Amino acid sequence: MNGVTISFDKTRTYINLSLSPSEFNKEVDERAIKLELEKGETKRLFVSDTALKSACDTANHYFKTGDGTVVQERIGERKNAEVVYRIPEDGMSANLVLTTPYGGKLPSLGTLKSLALKNNIRRGLGTKIIQSMLKEAKTAPPGTIIEKTVAKGLPARNGRSSRFIPLVPNALERVLRPQTGAGERVDMRNLGEVICVKANVPVLRRTEPTPGRTGFDVKGNLLDPKPGEWVEFRHGKGTAQSDSDQNILVSTIAGMPKYQDQTMNIDDTFICSGVNVGTGHVTYEGAVLVNGDVTEKMEIKAKGDVTINGFVESARIESDGDIIITEGAMGKVNDNPGEFNCQLIAAGSVHVQHGQGIDIQCAGNITIGRQLAYSRLRCAGSVTVGNIDNPMGNLFACDIISQDKVEAGTLGAISGSTLQVDFSPGFNLLIERKEALDELLRQIRENNSKHKEKINILKSKKVPKELKAKVADALEMFNNESALLEWIESKVLEVKETKDRYHSDIKLIANKRLYPGVSAKLNNRAWRSDREYDRSRVKFEGHQWSCEPMIS
């Protein structure tokens, strides 16, 4: 290009541009010069677009006006890599920002480590990540910005507060975890000995709180952990702290242990060899243990768990705890449909080894050892038929209301008998609770907003001495209202998360086979099996039911 000269200075660091308008045949093209700069040694060097444009505009002006003044401009330079360390306010990490060089040099690993030390980065620096950045920078185009976290602190780990470890199992846990014999096979009939403890037996142990682990930030400052706290025993019925060890809870009476909500209770236990017309009905303020059968039309009412090591026939059993029947339960078919003369009603969970023609109502889970048919189930938890770890039992011809999964080996029967599962009541309770909380939240928000305006007006005014006490009371009431508003907001969020989780929790699982006549319902959304399926899972997703095969 006539009149255009590109050259280096003596140190070969800077690019100089010389434009002589008197030698131009036409106006100089900025883009043509840029293309020329992208060749040879200058192609990896930094070029200032602003300086180049300014020089070209000036030279073109001189050319048009006939001025032959030569335009000299420094338009580029050789730049080494730029390095910046960024440390956030908490000091728990450090980022290295590396801008690749324009024909210049990359720093060495040692240089970057020295710079880190100058930036007060003393701990947690990762050499490998810095090496990978340098390797990436060698092939990256000039001016590429590479940023990665190269140092990390170690957060302090707070200590764990004391925990409670039951030294005796609950009766239901014992039943759901059958004993093993000499071999590896599980003997479903060997349920171990009945759990009843004598007086002065250790039943609950409290662990010591841990001090936690000291942490550090990248600057080397130590971060002190918060040590765990001693948690006091919740003294249940029939328990007391040991005189010899304050971390041990012992039984003060003989009875059946029940650990729930971090509280160990020893229920005074009524033990009998059977319940029949000879013994009469059983009503007891503690636990009831029946080492035999419960015969027709007999009743048991207990404040604690009811454990029956036998068979229940057409009887009524009520418990404020769990009901455990290690054999089976059966009711006669009544002439009136929907009536069951074998009823199990529990505030906790219910376990029956096998059953037919029974009515189960509980606030916990229902577990069936082998098979359940022609029954009605109402529970606030799940229904499992078979071994708790791998349910392979049979469930058919039942009417079920559940708030969690229903799982068995076989759902339904080859005859096509109806198995109905309705998940609606639990979901509707959540909806009602959410709507009530939403309305309460709306009202409190409106009131809080109005009160805030009035409080701000009060703060802006000069309050007479005689009214200061009343203003202080008003401020305290406002703060209490604001705290209540915050608590209700958290509860609304909690209920919303529970509602969303409900959809994923409800499902039917058939680990062997699912037969025609099985149905699942959630309000106006329903699914019904019209054919036979192999191992399948029926789930609620995207506001509709679907059935999918279980591959593994």
UniProtKB/TrEMBL annotation:
Domain Flagellar Assembly Protein A N-terminal region: 86-261
Top-level division of the source organism's lineage: Bacteria
Coiled-coil features, chain-numbered ranges: 427-461
UniProt keyword annotations, A-Z: Coiled coil
Family annotation (Pfam families): FapA, FapA_N
Name of this chain's protein: Flagellar Assembly Protein A N-terminal region domain-containing protein
Organism: Alteromonas australica
